[in-house]
Amino acid sequence: MADSQLFCVAEERSGHCAVVDGNFLYVWGGYVSIEDNEVYLPNDEIWTYDIDSGLWRMHLMEGELPASMSGSCGACINGKLYIFGGYDDKGYSNRLYFVNLRTRDGTYIWEKITNFEGQPPTPRDKLSCWVYKDRLIYFGGYGCRRHSELQDCFDVHDASWEEQIFWGWHNDVHIFDTKTQTWFQPEIKGGVPPQPRAAHTCAVLGNKGYIFGGRVLVSVFNGNVQCSL
């Protein structure tokens, strides 16, 4: 059985992932500011909050651990926590991991999804995710692309011309089907799409996904947009 410790409250943090499954809140990742430095929190810890008892507990994790990151996008489907993207000292990520939260022996084991079909999103952080049926639907985020990957869905912020790497904001939509292990981009119809952005929020109601807010450069949005799923 994996080690766990009981605490009155989880460590302070920002840029983390939090999901709810059953009567438990699960928190992973993020960073804490120490003397003006951003320190990434351990990647082998997951915190659980029992909504009924009000108790926090820290569990150690095993398996193919994601890097310690902030700005990753977390979502829960059928008792599994999926983590996509994020940022660490080595740059932006477009890797996808999952862990079964409904463990019977208290052991939380990360698995990296490598056997998939299709093309994942380019590396990024601070994106959003809807959950609809058995699919993860990702939108936006800040990240990097190579020159050959530049598209209208990408608002360039900075560039390294020597390495042909560009950084900026996205407004593209990517879907991962957890049943078929497939990445794909849906055909987008309708009116004007949302502007590229990061650090926005989202929610799903019925068969519609909603996004609100976010930022690009120094601009902060306060409009909301809906998308039928």
From TrEMBL:
GO CC annotation: Cul5-RING ubiquitin ligase complex; cytosol
GO terms classed as biological process: ubiquitin-dependent protein catabolic process via the C-end degron rule pathway
GO MF terms, alphabetically ordered: ubiquitin-like ligase-substrate adaptor activity
Pathway: Protein modification; protein ubiquitination
Sorted UniProt keywords: Kelch repeat, Repeat, Ubl conjugation pathway
One Pfam family recorded for the sequence: Kelch_KLHDC2_KLHL20_DRC7
The keyword Repeat appears for this protein: yes
Protein name as annotated: Kelch domain containing 1
